[in-house]
Amino acid sequence: MPDTPRRPEGTQDFIPEAIPAWRKLERVVGEVFERYGYLEVRPPLFENTSLFHKSTGETTDIVEKQMFTVPSRAEGGESVTFRPEFTPGVIRLILENQLLKQKPCVKLWYSGPVFRYERPQKGRYRQFHQFGVEAVGSNDPLLDAETIAAFDQILRRVGVTDHAVRINSMGCGECHGVYREALKAFIAPNLASYCENCRRRFDRNVFRVLDCKVPADKERNEKAPPAVDSLCAACRTHFESVQRGLGAAGVAFAVDKRIVRGLDYYTRTVYEFSSTRLGAQDALGGGGRYDGLVGQMGGPEAGAVGFSAGSERVLIAMAQEAEAARKLDFYAVAADDESRVDAFRAAQALRGADLAGDLDFEARSMKAQMRSANRAGAKFAVIVGSEERAQGRVRVKPMEGGEERLVTLDEAIRLLKGEAR
């Protein structure tokens, strides 16, 4: 009798009993991202191999060890690689389809399978699934805070309420140069004691040494100088603004000076989410800012920030709840620059009350923000200016016409839900 066929190592079957949990997670992911004004995209499963060499980085483990690459059947043709991550493909999609010409700040979300050749373990597979966002076209630190807040809300809505959020800053290109020299000066005296990978990476990309999982090297790296000590004034201000934004959004976080992201394109803000429910390998996902990647890939110089999370890892940690998606209920408008954080705070409060909304991240005029509210199809504009701030209130304006009201946030929630007259 022939042997029963078995699935390839590092893959998994989703039998009927597993599907309800997947559906619940997928519903919550779509709902929260749409509440935040992100639009779904679906790039192909594979891309030209050169895309990942150019963006993810030649010295990363993904490019060096983990890619599933298929050679071209045509003589001289380029090989293709099944995507090991979404970001390069989504940026390619934005540029190829000229989305930045349609809208100066493009906010996209995605969900689907990715492929990496690595040792299978709990919550880690060779074919696994990610969800995440890419927000391209703005340098606003509040956009960094928004991506973190969106991930935070997804976890809360699926019952992972005990997760931890840790943030750091890797600085800009100028900061990288300063930090690179500081790190090399720290590592050089003991370089011979590091593992072979670390010695190889020392000259090629010294930042990757901090990713080493060898226990002795990890212990040495605990004493390495942190990246935040090398930040320029602009990057320090940006990082402080991200922290204020998270405070305004009500997201609990800790600054962890040891966080670095393992991909070459990250700049400034980096962050990670974790849960003790996963044991020693506690990562749920993470992300950060990558302001140079769009230009590096042939597009305009554009600020960008995003994150990805492992669906399987969230499913291990989650308590299951279901939510329903809906369209935008509001657009938060700041009447002046001083009111932007307060408008962001109001948006977070309304989103926390199951209302869908978006806001401006380009510091535009109130008139321009109202046009955006109208284009977004929002039912209401929620306006914050000096008068509203002084009174601790917001102004609610129906977009289809009707009476404006100056109300508290609690009253605004009832008004937007149709519970107040």
Please state the overall shape, judged from the principal axes of the Cα atoms: globular
Global structural class: alpha+beta
User: How are strands sequenced across the largest beta sheet?
Assistant: 1-5-6-11-10-9-7-8
Q: Please give the domain count.
A: 3
CATH A-level architecture of the largest domain: 2-Layer Sandwich
Alpha-carbon Rg, integer: 23 Å
The helicity comes to 25-40%
Number of strands: 16
Mind describing the biggest β-sheet?
8 strands, mixed
In whole angstroms, how far apart are the ends?
74 Å
Please write the CATH class name of the largest domain. Alpha Beta
Arithmetic mean pLDDT: 89
In DSSP terms (H or I, runs of 4 or more residues), the helix count works out at: 16
Q: Which tags fit this structure?
A:
421 residues, alpha+beta, Rossmann fold, eight-stranded mixed β-sheet, five-stranded mixed β-sheet, globular
Topology:
Blueprint: H1 19-35, E1 39-40, E2 46-48, H2 49-55, H3 61-66, E3 68-70, E4 80-82, H4 87-96, H5 99-102, E5 106-115, E6 127-136, H6 141-157, E7 164-169, H7 173-187, H8 196-204, H9 215-221, H10 233-249, E8 254-255, E9 267-274, E10 283-289, H11 293-296, E11 304-310, H12 311-317, E12 330-334, H13 340-352, E13 357-359, H14 366-375, E14 380-384, H15 386-391, E15 394-398, E16 405-407, H16 409-416
Parallel strand pairs: 1-5, 7-8, 12-13, 12-14
Antiparallel strand pairs: 2-4, 3-4, 5-6, 6-11, 7-9, 9-10, 10-11, 14-15, 15-16
Helix pairs in contact: 1-6, 6-10, 10-13
